[in-house]
Design goal:
By secondary structure, this protein is of the alpha/beta class. It has helices spanning about 35-45, 75-90, 105-110, 135-145, 160-165, 175-195, 195-205, and strands at about 20-25, 50-60, 90-95, 120-130, 150-160.
């Protein structure tokens, strides 16, 4: 459930020590997928920080129908649960592979179930793939997230030839470099999460 906060309530806006709620979404649902490897490692990096409260949603665990339904019909429970998570999030991290120079259909389906829930929320991308590291998927996702009123951040954690980046136990071959990149990524994400917080509070108060 989302906590309703009235307009003008500045309790959390002025509290810079507060942890921001970051929702990480694992976008690929393929059997044998790689997505949970970078997600797990980056989740650990987030948990080491004192400014992030992390939740992870794996789309493979959810039943999100391709039929988006109509406004008059009650949404399935997994849709409602994911909508509540997005609505309550201060920032989103999307973990995406590249499929045929784009992002997976599972991700588009999850995105399209919601609209205002996304708005005024910063979105950061983690991508992986072959030579390009899945950056094509990220650039397409930026276009989609503009329509939803989000702020897509500049820093991207992109892993080209990802099979060379992470070893079999899911640890990066060059942890210092990836840690530094992850630090910059989260710093920017949290900066935007704080900057846009008044807008999210106003959105939540309207619901
Ligand atoms: C349908 C499909 C299309 C793919 N297309 C590309 C591509 O265009 N560029 C690329 O670098 N890798 C491509 N790959 C390789 C994926 O990046 C790689 O298989 C990755 O592990 C997929 O993510 P996942 O394991 O989380 O599903 C493709 C893989 C699949 C399954």
């Amino acid at each position: 459930m989302t906590t309703k906060i009235e307009p003008g309530d500045t309790r959390v806006m002025t509290d810079t020590a507060k942890r921001m709620r970051v929702l990480m979404v694992i976008g690929s649902v393929r059997t044998g997928r790689f997505g949970h490897v970078p997600a797990s490692w980056l989740a650990e990096r987030a948990r080491l920080r004192d400014d992030i409260e992390l939740a992870i949603t794996d789309l493979a665990d959810l039943d999100l129908p391709a039929d988006l339904g109509d406004k008059g019909r009650a949404a399935p429970s997994d849709v409602t649960a994911l909508g509540d998570q997005i609505e309550a999030a201060d920032a989103i991290v999307i973990v995406t592979p590249v499929y045929n120079r784009g992002y997976p259909a599972s991700l588009k389906n999850a995105i399209d179930w919601f609209n205002s829930e996304w708005s005024a929320t910063p979105v950061g991308f983690v991508s992986y793939g072959g030579r390009t590291g899945g950056i094509e998927a990220v650039e397409q996702l930026r276009t989609v997230f503009v329509e939803l009123g989000t702020m897509t951040i500049r820093n991207v954690l992109s892993f080209p030839d990802f099979w060379e980046v992470f070893d079999e136990s899911g640890v990066p071959a060059d942890p210092a470099r990836v840690s530094r990149a992850a630090g910059n990524f989260y710093d920017e994400l949290i900066w935007w999460a704080r900057a846009l917080r008044p807008a999210r509070l106003a959105r939540q108060a309207r619901r």
